[in-house]
Amino acid sequence: MAVAKRRIWGWMAFDWASQPFYTLGLTFIFGPYFAVVATEYFLGTGMEEAAADAQAQWVWSLGQTVAGLLIAFTAPFLGAFADNSGRKMPWIAFFSVIYVIATAMLWGLTPDGSALIFMLVMFYVGFFAAESALNFVNAILPSLGNEKEVGRISGSGAAFGYWGGVTSLFIMLLLLAENDEGVTLLGNAPLFGLNPDLREGTRSVGPFIAVWYVIFIIPFFMFVRDDPTAPRKSTRLGAVWGELMETLRSVFHRKSLLNFLVGSMFYRDALNALYAFGGVYAALVLDWQTIQIGVFGIIAAIAAAVSTWVGGLCDQRYGPKPVIRVCVWVLIAVSVVIVSMSRDAIFGLPFAEGSNVPDIIFYICGVCIGGAGGALYAASRSMMVRHTHPERPAEAFGLFALTGKATAFLAPALITVFTIMTGSNQLGFLPVIFLFLFGLFLLRFVNKDGDRAEWSAS
Q: Do 424 and 410 touch, CB atoms closer than 8 A?
């Protein structure tokens, strides 16, 4: 029993170690900083402000699109290869090394934007490595408990990760990330003599993410091991490819799995767009500075930690499907508000000049995005376990990653098109609402118990 508990805690340590990449990197520190640097860079080329804002958002979405497609096409094959070899840990270690190197290099995004595209590439190399490692970590989840326990473990692990995000964000805001006046949230210059004029406090987010991961991933590698009794098959590329193709063909004969994979493909794509562009929206539409966005991030991450844990308990009692439904409806409501609000008005109703009402509304949106998004992620992971063959978990989560990333280009591309067509950062979010609704519709055809009964009978 003690070994099993240590294994669960070790598995949860991965979420704690990797979450700062998403909290600090993708959403609240590096992403908005990249948007500001990119906008200033494009302004320097002679663009007008609105065009420069749209171009900055377009470049960021292009990076997300390319990285998502790479993950989509590699994840199922890597998962099948890992299942055949019976080994996942070497892959996790391999992608961890790439992740640490790529994130450490983000220090190079200077305010003049001289390395803008190279830093964009490095960020999404880190993103690719983080997501690839996560696929193998998720494949360990089915072995950590029975059907009811898995929902609680998934929710608790994700909640633990969000607390890691909150803690790391606190440290960045209090000690390192500076505002336009060159001081941190405490009113001091960044630690270690970092130069605020060169935004070195904010730029340290990359090395900070790398060091955080190196320290806190240790329990994972200490307590989590590959199952030595796992069946091993041929690892010849032809054999692995053949088994993967057989699995893909079988998906079309499994109505519940097919609808879940396709439905989750759309609602996860929409959620990732909210994560990736939330901070960018705050910077470009509401004119928020790094520290203000960071405070927003803390509130959202705390909400995510609490609601994800509660969602895990609800998953254990009611199953993952009702949890997913509630979360998607909350995110649809938030998306409607984002599309309808600017610094000056909401739903066409003007704010008083200098009003802080749009800021308050967006803080509430942050709570809803963090809370519903965290619980949605954990419940979706739990639902995938219910559709997973016990002998092919890595391949199954590779398919989960495939459908989560195969259309990763869709939301960013649609946001790009709508932003260019409307010339508005707010209206650029309209496609997100449609993706959520389509995912919710397909969820109707998903069996709340998945395929577990079928696997048990066989």
A: no
89 closest CA partner among 211, 219, 244, 220: 220
Beta bridge partners of 345: 350
216 has a pLDDT exceeding 90? yes
What does the DSSP 8-state code read for residue 227?
-
- What is the three-class DSSP state of 233? coil
For residue 166, how far is the Cα from the chain centroid? Answer: 15
CA 385 to centroid of chain Cα atoms: 19
Secondary structure of residue 273 in the 3-state scheme:
helix
CA distance 448 to 442: 13
Average model confidence (pLDDT) across the chain:
80
- The sign of the dihedral angle between the CA atoms of 92, 97, 99, 100 is positive
Q: How far is CA 193 from the centre of its chain?
A: 32
- Between CA 322 and CA 307 the distance in angstroms is 14
- Separation between Cα atoms, residue 257 and residue 261, nearest integer Å: 6
Q: Give the model confidence (pLDDT) of 22-57 as tens digits.
A: 888 887 788 888 888 888 888 877 777 777 877 787
Which residues, at least 6 apart from 150, have a Cβ–Cβ distance to it below 8 Å?
141, 142, 144, 382, 385
Highest-pLDDT range among 244-253, 278-287, 308-317, 407-416? 308-317
Q: What is the pLDDT averaged over residues 261-270?
A: 86
Burial 178-190 (b: 16+ CB within 10 A, else e): bbeeeebbeeeeb
DSSP 8-class letter at 230: S
Which residue is listed with tokens 């990359």?
206
**Residue 440, both tokens:** 């919710």
How big, in percent rounded to 5, are the helix, strand and coil portions of the chain?
80, 0, 20
In the numeric block, which tokens belong to residue 368?
């809803």
Helix residue ranges, H only, 144-254: 147-171, 200-203, 205-216, 218-223, 237-251
